[in-house]
Design goal:
The protein is α/β, with parallel strands linked by helices. The chain is built from 16 helices and 19 strands.
Length: about 475
């Protein structure tokens, strides 16, 4: 405890923030912290055998969440950093659906009991590239093996350009009750540059079709930091997005990593905004969103005050996982599909990332887990600190340490005093609180507690 107090000394009375100076100092490449340890630190030591043991050890009263990854799109967006490929014929998608069924059977057999499910999330790629019969078949198989809570949330990420009436009807038929609409930006010049041309009218028609079918909970995903974006243009995009009446809005920062995602080389790099311009775009977006009554949630989400995310924020039960911010408090997340990641009490697991490899393993009757990490006591301690920072923007180091039976001195970090002096946070030696105006720097604050991180690793996105 003494070490923490000493680290805080001199950092309690910071002045006004000099944003440009802070960006120069703290705009590092750090993880988004959808897990801790983060995926780059997974290893082959956690394989299918380990995962099978973890599944068998789940208690009878375990509550699950399920994630299904569909790594296909009809067109590649140049900004994309997801595991996905372009397909223009039904065969590969139909085969993928069949393999998903087989993987679900394998996992269910390893568990050996019909456990309760509270959340289901379909992500991608574009999950709605899968024909409605395939989506329904997968959902039916899940309901066969697992006991769905009557209030289960079934969320699907949607590309409005390909979600016609037949797709929406299929989503309603499989029980979908939350939809995330990918938008990014409504400016035609930006859309042309990123290879995603999508009119506001197309997006509106999709939202209206969803609501007609009873899918009334709608999220809109936007992005800043793209070529040709400006603060004024970002504000206009947000205004138009809010005209759709979403419950939630996410505003993600574009991560330019063309050495990892070669298709990003197609973007006009000279037209990418610099760090200060990105900051101004984010601030412009947030001003419009909050003026319309939505509340800031964590790093990059916003929600109506009546939305479950806002309620969870107030109740300090907001969580963060591989899908972002969530109300999902289930201790187990099972991932299905190529590259999908799962979280269990013992640690994290990830499937083979390549579709062909994942398919061949499943067809051979094996769970397709290829890497992961078993959590240590220190991992659990630091994971809670990081998650509280990412979700609440504040954390009591003494309280977290006490819950884990740890000495709070192990969380001492000299960098906190410097951040406090720079005006990013307030720190009294115990409670650490990121200042609201410095919220975009929360990942950099969280990184102070990451013992695995080598700052500025190319695989991570910049803070701003």
């Amino acid at each position: 405890m003494t070490q923490i107090m000493e680290a805080a000394a001199g950092g309690r009375h910071a002045g006004a923030m000099d944003i440009a100076a802070l960006i120069r100092k703290y705009d590092a490449r750090v993880p988004r912290y959808t897990s801790y340890p983060t995926a780059p630190h997974f290893s082959p030591a956690v394989d299918a055998g380990v995962y099978r043991g973890w599944l068998a050890a789940l208690p009878d009263d375990a509550v699950l969440s399920l994630y299904l990854h569909v790594p296909f799109c009809v067109q590649m967006c140049w900004y994309c950093a997801c595991h996905t490929t372009v397909v223009n014929r039904p065969g590969p998608v139909e085969q993928y659906a069949e393999t998903l069924l087989a993987e679900i059977d394998l996992a269910a057999a390893a568990i050996g009991r019909r456990l309760k499910v509270r959340h289901v999330h379909w992500g991608g790629g574009s999950p709605t590239i899968m024909p409605a019969p395939g989506l329904r078949a997968v959902m039916d198989r899940l309901r066969t093996h697992f006991a769905f809570d009557p209030a289960v949330e079934i969320a699907v990420e949607i590309d409005p350009r390909t979600a016609g009436e037949d797709v929406v009807e299929g989503l309603a038929g499989m029980g979908c009750n939350r939809a995330s609409l990918g938008v990014q930006d409504f400016d035609p010049r930006v859309q042309e540059a990123v290879n995603r041309v999508q009119s506001w009218e197309t997006t509106r028609d999709c939202a209206e079709a969803l609501r007609r079918r009873g899918i009334r909970s709608i999220n809109v995903d936007l992005m800043y930091g793209l070529p040709f974006q400006t603060a004024a243009g970002m504000a206009e995009t947000v205004e138009r997005a809010l005209d759709l009446g979403p419950d939630r809005v996410a505003v993600f920062g574009y991560a330019h990593v063309p050495w990892m995602k070669k298709h990003q080389l197609q973007l006009p790099e000279a037209a990418l905004p610099g760090a200060m311009a990105r900051w101004e775009q984010l601030q412009a977006a947030e001003r419009v969103i909050t003026q319309h009554g939505l509340r800031a949630i964590g790093l990059d989400h916003y929600a109506l005050p009546t939305d479950d995310l806002a309620t969870a924020l107030d109740a300090r039960s907001l969580r963060r996982n591989f899908q972002g911010y969530t109300t999902d408090t289930a201790p187990v997340l099972l991932g299905f599909g190529a590259s999908s990641i799962g979280s269990l009490p013992e640690g994290y697991v990830q499937n083979a990332p390549a579709v062909a490899e994942w398919r061949d393993i499943v067809r051979a009757g094996e769970l397709p887990t290829r890497r992961g990490v078993a959590l240590t006591a220190e991992d659990r301690l630091r994971r809670e600190v990081i998650e509280q920072l990412m979700c609440q923007g504040r954390v009591s180091l003494v309280e977290v340490a006490a819950r884990h039976g740890a000495d709070p001195a192990t969380l001492a970090a000299p960098g906190l005093a410097e951040m406090a002096a720079d005006g990013i946070l307030d720190f009294d030696g115990d409670t650490l609180a990121v200042r609201p105006e410095a919220r975009p720097f929360v990942r950099t604050v969280a990184a102070v507690f990451d013992t695995y991180l080598k700052v500025n690793q190319a695989r991570h996105a910049r803070t701003v």
